[in-house]
Amino acid sequence: xxxxxxxxxxxxxxxxxxIISVKEVTFNSSNFLIYPNPSENSFIxxxxxxxxxxxxxxxxxxxxxxxxxxxxxxxxxKINCETWANGVYLINISDGNASKTVKLIKN
Length: 107
Fold this sequence. Notes:
This protein is mainly beta. Helices cover 0% and strands 44% of the residues.
């Protein structure tokens, strides 16, 4: 056991790690738009550039379960959410190299 200067007792030590580099690749948030949000029956993901072959939209619930996976073939993709339970969902848009996740509220 380790006792810190604040009196907190821990069972482990954190080793010193040195981070050499981190490459972060994400979409610029202005590259796509999701509307309406909140949504009831369906929502649209609109991308401001032509989609690539690898581009896809994945929807996850808050437990991390994949709900829907859709390839993107046009600038605007409509996704039906009528049968989903009300709540918050994570919409992930990826193109094979970069990805961005945003929240969608389903009423």
